[in-house]
Design goal:
Elements (H helix, E strand, L loop, with lengths): L2 E6 L7 H10 L3 H4 L1 E6 L6 H21 L4 E6 L2 H16 L3 E6 L4 H4 L5 H13 L2 E4 L2 H10 L5 E3 L34 H13 L6
Parallel strand pairs: 1-2, 1-3, 3-4, 4-5, 5-6
Helix pairs in contact: 3-4, 4-6
């Protein structure tokens, strides 16, 4: 059994990171290992966000001092999120713990050039000094290498629990209704979804 400390937005925050965390908590990994979760960010007023970030740092220090934490798993999103996680990263480095940095920043390539030179150096340090950097696609891996070439990067695609709808899709069954909620664009995969649905319809599935 491993003791793992997750540093990520609160699971009440809407977004991909919270979805990933909740997905992990619902798997056998949560039963086979000891998980702690520190919320580094919450939705709301700016003052509440600052308070949560500070409280999260204190909680992280508490866990590092009083719990036998084996692995730190930090989840970060856009540039603002990376800046916030950098302070957690520096704190964890003081305790010489193994760090996984889970990179969720879809807009990183557009935001990084706008960062100051100081923050570019800090971001490079975070990425290169983490034991492993997890990113969600090979294109993201290329983007990270361009910024931090010494990073130890592995690609892990986001997982999802598939609904049991196989029988419902068979020819002659009742219509299956599919709803997509999200930004309409290539990055969200809506056009891939439409191609798959078309193929299923052509195969005789009743989909609307």
């Amino acid at each position: 059994m491993k003791t793992i400390l997750f540093i990520a937005p609160d699971i009440s925050v809407k977004g991909g990171i919270s979805t990933v965390i909740k997905g992990l908590l619902g798997t056998s990994l949560a039963q086979e290992n000891k998980f702690y979760l520190v919320a580094s960010h919450v939705d709301g007023l700016k003052a509440r966000k600052y308070l949560q970030a500070f409280t999260g740092l204190l909680k992280t220090a508490y866990y590092l001092i009083f719990k036998k934490i084996g692995i730190i798993h930090i989840h970060g999103g856009d540039i603002t999120s990376i800046k916030r996680k950098y302070f957690y990263f520096r704190l964890v480095k003081l305790f010489k713990k193994k760090i996984i940095y889970h990179f969720h920043g879809a807009s990183f390539s557009e935001q990084y050039p706008l960062a100051s030179l100081g923050w570019k150096r800090r971001i490079k340090s975070l990425l290169e000094d983490s034991n492993i950097v997890i990113c969600l696609s090979y294109s993201w891996k290329t983007a990270i290498i361009n910024v931090a070439p010494k990073s130890n990067i592995t690609v892990v695609h986001n997982a999802t629990v598939l609904p049991e709808i196989g029988e419902k899709l068979k020819k002659g069954s009742k219509t299956v209704y599919i709803t997509f909620l999200g930004l309409i664009g290539e990055r969200k995969g809506i056009f891939d979804l439409l191609e798959v649905i078309l193929r299923l319809i052509m195969a005789g599935c009743n989909i609307h």
